[in-house]
What we know:
By secondary structure, the protein is α/β, with parallel strands linked by helices. The protein has helices spanning about 10-15, 30-35, 105-115, 145-150, 170-180, and strands at about 45, 60-65, 75, 90-95, 115-125, 155-170, 195-205. Helix 1 packs antiparallel against helix 5 (about 170-180).
Amino acid sequence: MTGDDYLDPSRLEARIAIHRYGTNxxxxxxFVRERLPLARGERVLDAGAGTGLLWDYDHGARLTLLDxxxxxxxxxxxxxxxxxxxxxxxxxxxxxxxxxxxxxxxDALRExxxxxxxxxTVATNGRGHMHGLGEDVHTHFPAERLGExxxxxFDEVTLHPYEDTLVAPVEAVRAYVxxxxxxPATVTGEGPVTIAKHTVLAVAR
Length: 205
């Protein structure tokens, strides 16, 4: 799946929906919120905000949501490798599940550091994430290289692994694989499908 596939919001919604079947008692969004070095009143950029679900709580930040897809109508249009903001324009920046779509992830990290005068969080998936469901983009910027990549641009980097297992009904899995361009007929059987997830959140200063 490429960034351009998000032009159809229904595809993104199908990709998000499958994660409701996670068995980890803490959701991904709650996991991230606990670890955001966020102070109330800070100006924060979310580069690649998608539907903006991360911010569905009383965060107290002054948000700028950026996305390259015109389907996200309430967002600033822009690309993470060439952010349309001045140096140090934000107190913090968030960029989750985006950099494996970037042709040059290192350029995106450089941009995130440039526009943030405080902290940056980046999330990406490991090589075994959602294995066998047509997702191969993670090999471009996998979690296994996240710490090293971040250390080239930031002085202090902390990695937070998030592990989860989905136990999802077949129809949800078929909708997911269709959203990444795979024939849903390849998902056979009637019982729940067990799917491993592996994601890492990096918090940098």
